[in-house]
Structures are given as structure tokens and as C-alpha cells.
Design goal:
The chain has helices spanning 3-8, 54-57, 66-78, 90-102, 116-133, 154-158, 186-199, 223-236, 257-261, 288-291, 313-328, 331-345, 375-384, 406-428; strands at residues 33-37, 40-43, 48-51, 107-113, 141-145, 178-180, 203-208, 212-213, 219-220, 240-243, 267-270, 282-287, 355-361, 364-369, 387-388, 395-398. It has 14 helices and 16 strands. The chain has 2 domains: 12-64 and 330-428, Aspartate Aminotransferase, domain 1 (Alpha-Beta Complex), CATH 3.90.1150; 66-328, Type I PLP-dependent aspartate aminotransferase-like (Major domain) (Aspartate Aminotransferase, domain 2), CATH 3.40.640. The strands form 4 sheets. A 7-stranded mixed β-sheet has the order 4-12-11-10-7-5-6, sandwiched between helices. Strands 1-2-3-15 form a 4-stranded mixed β-sheet. The chain has a 3-stranded antiparallel β-sheet with strand order 13-14-16, covered by helices on one side. The model has no long low-confidence stretch (mean pLDDT 96). Bound molecules: pyridoxal-5'-phosphate. Belongs to the class-III pyridoxal-phosphate-dependent aminotransferase family. BioA subfamily. It catalyses: (8S)-8-amino-7-oxononanoate + S-adenosyl-L-methionine = S-adenosyl-4-methylsulfanyl-2-oxobutanoate + (7R,8S)-7,8-diammoniononanoate.
Length: 429
């Protein structure tokens, strides 16, 4: 250690990478990955792990699918990157048309960016500016829901669950929004109607993760809840934003949750599995009705946004290749097979001490515990069992790549059950 490092108690050189959501002083060392193929991660020490969470829900076709790798390599040789201001390229043009065709209703206009959080920011800006462009100022707030998660930037944090989104930690730095309970029953629907009657005129939009609230706790709600939101938004003239960053591209067994619920939003955000977990890319997809509010001879009515790397050609090529795979390979059937295996095996966890709920939908399986003390020990136990499973808060969940074989899926679920059982008996008996 240098003298400075000695005084501090750590050597800055050992902490050049500042890690996500981590107390750097106490977090366990990260595991170096040197290879990845199919559903497996290869660690530097030679161990392999079955990835039970698809690298933060992105790697839907497994690692290193040759069709995506080839498409990216070819694009890197042709045009690795070019700005989208004043210039364009085939991968972005084609991807936008394909996303517009896949997305429900008149969601026809695709604004690209590089991360999910930024796509949510763009959706929020589209909503706000669409009112300004129609001469309505003062509509600046959003209605969002408890249990929701929409990203880590300041604006997206403001529409996250107030506790999970650290609204008090960052109080003053983030906008105040209207946060309500999802209208999952008639009483809550009544309360939400009252809120909208009172505050609807200050709102620019309503944002929700359709059918599954992900990072806020893997909570499920039904299509009727979304239909109720759609009706309220129509009644109050508010754009409804579906954040499909987690649910998009098959995770629930349909390409989008909107399709499964039979509800069409006015803006949809996508990212995570968009490139099959290869390169960063995201998009806000807006309806023609909203797009029209920007369509004018007045340059001042243009959407004022433009990320430097938006529509990166290599990332668009990866996304196009990923969409090819949804057409050529039985991805959605694979998701249904995963759902069936969850239904067969996960209920065993219901009888374990400390378990509050066990649920699954599409390729998401959830064991909700009373709490998860000693989370780091639990995480290490999963690694010891040969699986990459990343519990958070009080949630143990599995979201494997859709291509996982029946044998690997059974091994993953059984390992998860074994580790959970041993851990639950230690803490809750
Ligand atoms: C992951 C996620 C985001 C944020 O995406 P980033 O790419 O991490 O910025 C936003 N909304 C939902 C629903 C997500 O799951």
C-alpha cells in the first residue's frame, strides 16, 4: 500500500471500477467471466455457472448466438457507428419499421437511445412536449405506481416506488410526482379516479410496467388493471406509457405485455432483450397520434432530444438479428415450456419456512420471502451450487434465457430450491 492508501484504508488502484448498487467497502469481489456460451458463464477459475437471470434480463437467446454475432461482425466491418443527425443507415431504418410492425396499435415512431432509463426520459419528454406543442403548459407531472421501477436517472427515479426509488435519500434532487397504488381492485380504482379528478390537469402522462413490476419486487397484476388505466387515461386525455423494458421481447410469452393484456399504450419503452443481450440499445416507440403533435412547419415543435450514440448501427444490426431469431426459432414456445416447468417445480418452495409467496408468469419464476438477511451469503451459496441467481430485497427469482434446455432448467430450478431451502431452514426455523 502507498502512504495515501494506508491513511484511507484502501488502495484506490484496486477500485477503479465503481460497482453497481454496491457498498464498495463490504461488497464481495466480483467474479471474473472469461467466456459465455448458451446459458453458461465461464469463470476465470474454470467453474461454469448456469445464468438464471439472463444478465439482467437481456440474454434471451443465450450467450454468443452465432446469428447475432455474425450480424454484428458484418456491421462492424461496414459501418460501426455513424451519427443519426442528418445521416441514416439501413439497420436503423429496418429495425424501426420492424419494431413499428411488431408493436400494437399505431405505435409507429421509434426514437432510439442507448439505455432503458434514457428511453423512459424520452417517453416523458414526448408526453410533456406533446402538450406544450398543443399550447397546453403546466402539464409537467406524471402519475406512477407504488412498486414500480423505471430507471436510475433523476427523472426516472421520480417515477419509481418512493422507497425503492430512494425518494427520501434524494429528496430535493428529484421531481415530485403523483404516486398511487395500482388500481388492482374497485376501491383502489375509486381512489385513483379521485386523484385524477383532482390532479389530472397537472399531469402529462401515466407510466406503468405492464403486467409485471420487475425491479420493484416482481409483482404481478392483471389485464383488467391495465384496461382500467387505459380507460382513465382516455377519460382525462393523458398518454399512457408502458415501460416494457423488462416485459418486452417474449418474457411473458408474447412479444409484448401490451399484446398479452390486449391494451395499447400511447408510448412504449423497450431495451434489455432488444439486442438479445449483446449491445446497449433502447427506444421509445410513440403513437402516430402523439407524433402528429410534433408534425409542424414550426421548427420549435421538434422533439428536442438526440443522444450521441442513438441508433448505433452495430446495436441495430444485433437487434435485427435478434428479431430474426424470434421469427426463425420457437422462442415463445420455449417461454411457455419454461412457464410449465416453473408450474411443476416451484410450488415445492411454498412449504419452506419464511416463504410468503411463490408465483410465476412466462419465463419469470419468483419466491418471495419474509426477508432475506445475509443476502451476500445467499448469493455465494447459489454460486457454490453452480447457478447465477441474484436475489434482491426479499425476492429470489429466476429469469433464464429462453433457449435453456429442459435438463438445464430443471438443474437450475432444483439448485435454486436446494439453496433456498437450506438458507430458509437456517434463518426461519
Ligand atoms: C431495467 C429497467 C429500466 C432501466 O433500464 P437501464 O437500461 O438500466 O437504464 C427501466 N425500466 C424497467 C422496467 C427496467 O426493467
Amino acid at each position: 500500500m502507498t502512504q495515501d492508501a494506508d491513511k484511507r484504508g484502501f488502495d484506490p488502484g484496486d477500485h477503479a471500477v465503481w460497482r453497481p448498487y454496491a457498498q464498495m467497502k463490504t461488497t464481495a469481489p466480483a467474479l471474473p467471466v472469461v467466456g459465455a456460451s448458451g446459458v453458461r458463464l465461464e469463470l476465470a477459475d474454470g467453474r461454469t455457472l448456469i445464468d438464471g437471470v439472463s444478465s439482467w434480463w437481456t440474454v434471451c437467446h443465450g450467450y454468443c448466438h452465432p446469428h447475432i454475432i455474425d450480424a454484428v461482425k458484418r456491421q462492424l466491418d461496414a459501418v460501426p457507428h455513424v451519427m443519426l443527425g442528418g445521416l441514416t443507415h439501413e439497420p436503423a431504418e429496418r429495425l424501426a419499421r420492424r419494431l413499428a410492425a411488431l408493436a400494437p396499435g399505431d405505435l409507429n415512431h421509434v426514437f432510439f437511445c442507448e439505455s432503458g432509463s434514457v428511453s423512459v426520459e424520452i417517453a416523458m419528454k414526448i408526453a410533456v412536449q406533446s402538450f406544450i406543442n398543443r399550447g397546453q403548459r403546466g402539464r409537467t407531472k406524471f402519475l406512477a405506481f407504488r412498486g414500480g421501477y423505471h430507471g436510475d436517472t433523476l427523472a426516472t427515479m421520480s417515477v419509481c416506488d418512493p422507497e425503492e426509488g430512494m425518494h427520501s435519500l434524494f429528496a430535493g434532487a428529484i421531481a415530485r410526482q403523483v404516486i398511487a397504488d395500482l388500481p388492482t381492485d374497485p376501491d383502489r380504482l375509486d381512489s385513483l379516479s379521485v386523484i385524477l379528478d383532482q390532479q389530472g390537469a397537472t399531469l402529462a402522462g401515466v407510466i406503468v410496467e405492464p403486467l409485471v413490476q420487475g425491479a420493484g419486487g416482481m409483482r404481478f397484476h392483471d389485464a383488467a388493471t391495465l384496461q382500467a388505466l387505459r380507460a382513465l387515461c382516455d377519460q382525462h386525455g393523458l398518454p399512457l406509457i408502458f415501460d416494457e423494458i423488462m416485459t418486452g421481447f417474449g418474457r411473458l410469452g408474447t412479444m409484448f405485455a401490451a399484446e398479452k393484456a390486449g391494451v395499447t399504450p400511447d408510448i412504449m419503452t423497450v431495451s434489455k432483450a432488444l439486442t438479445g443481450g449483446t449491445l446497449p440499445l433502447a427506444a421509445a416507440i410513440a403513437s402516430t397520434r402523439l407524433f402528429e403533435t410534433f408534425w409542424d412547419d414550426d421548427a420549435g415543435k421538434a422533439l428536442m432530444h438526440g443522444p450521441t450514440y442513438m441508433g448505433n448501427p452495430a446495436a441495430c444490426a444485433a437487434a435485427n438479428a435478434s428479431l430474426d431469431l424470434f421469427e426463425r426459432e420457437p422462442r415463445l414456445a420455449q417461454v411457455h415450456a419454461i412457464e410449465a416447468m416453473f408450474a411443476a417445480l416451484l410450488p415445492q418452495a411454498r412449504d419452506l419456512p419464511g416463504v410468503l409467496d411463490v408465483r410465476w408468469q412466462g419465463a419469470i419464476g419468483v419466491i418471495e420471502m419474509q426477508s432475506l438477511p445475509e443476502l451476500d451469503t445467499l448469493k455465494a451459496a447459489f454460486v457454490g451450487a453452480g447457478v447465477w441467481v441474484r436475489p434482491f430485497n426479499n425476492i429470489i427469482y429466476l429469469m433464464p434465457p429462453y433457449v435453456i434446455s429442459a435438463e438445464d432448467l430443471q438443474a437450475l430450478i432444483e439448485a435454486a430450491l436446494r439453496v433456498t431451502e437450506a438458507w430458509a431452514r437456517r434463518h426461519f426455523l
